[in-house]
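Subject: sequence -> structure tokens, single chain

Hey, anyone have a minute? Need the predicted structure for the following. Not urgent.
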Amino acid sequence: MEIEGGMIRSVDFAEHGEQRWLSAGFVDLQVNGYAGHDLNGLTLDPATVRALCQALLKVGVTTFLPTIITAPEARIIAALRTIREACAQYPEVAAMVAGIHVEGPHIAPEDGPRGAHPAADVRAPSVAEFARWQEAAGGLVKLVTLSPHWPEAPAYIRHLVKSGVVVSLGHTSADAAQIAAAVDAGASLSTHLGNGSHALLNRRHNHLWPQLADDRLTAMFIADGHHLTPAQLKVMLRAKGLGRSLVVSDTVALGGLAAGKYHTPIGGKVELRADGFLAIDDGTGNYLAGAALPLLAALPVLVDQVGLTFGEAIGLMTSAPGRVIGGRGVLAVGQPADLVALEWDGGAAVPRVVGIWSRGVRSE
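Reply:
Had a minute. Here:
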């Protein structure tokens, strides 16, 4: 591959053994934190955003959306402003941050669909509040997740879509009519479908079937082997089709850290197991407290457990999410030279990153 000015100038394909691979860098639309760097902590500074970028590069992510969750408006505004400042201060951050994902605060308030989001800060959609977000972010808010059960949702969605923002449905127990109204208004994604849900659902009338059935919605899935069983993921991918599916990590700050017990501002006491299962430390160890495995860990799940080809799995982590943010994650002439080199023979638990390039600059 020839690279010039941070862009791919030419690509040569040759026969090789099926152990070393060169791919477009991974594109992750949902990152709350990783390797101890928290985007939703009580304080956030540009240096933390930069450190998070450096940590993500090591696991193959070259493009991502920092994700800010439900919080008081002042905290959301402060986080958005800080991410904007980090992009202005550090060119390498600006190259990786393709926008910001605001997940909430307009989600379902009840236990289950709300997930780990703080109940006290859940509130109805507000166009005026969104305008304040976007002003603080300098226009960087590109994706918003909400529940369509709010009466204000259709008008709010129309406003955001008209403003060039992608709207995703998530953390909801909305009925089929509310989901259809949201999609009619312009919602086009489902956030971590199958999660952010009641533990028990009506087998006929629930929020999953309408989203799986509507071909206007592309589904985001967490394919870490914990959030969905292989059978669930396989069936959902079949229902949506690979052309209407993509994979996210949804990692939190504890992702990539050593196994053990921790205390977090969101979720309280948690336990991180060696296999990446992050559980609420309530004595049962059965309830997830977030995602701890990077996007890289989805490859063996998708290939070995779900049955996709290596190329199909890579597509769900590169070009598919890249389409949502304007066409990133493509290995082709004229595209940014955001690349990851992998070693994987199908036997190792997780592929090994042996090279990473952001805009043609190799990261150490």
